[in-house]
Amino acid sequence: MITFERRKQDCLDKDDKSSIGGWDKQIRALCEKINKKSEFYTLSSCSGRVVLIKNLEKKQPGMFIFRSHEKISFSQLKEGLENASGDKESLIYKQEQPILHVACKTLEDAEAMLRKAQLAGFKHSGIISLAESRIVCEIIGSEQLSLPIMEKGKLLVDEDFLKILVKESNRRLEIGWQKIGRLEKSI
Question: What global pTM score does this model have?
Answer without folding.
Answer: 0.90
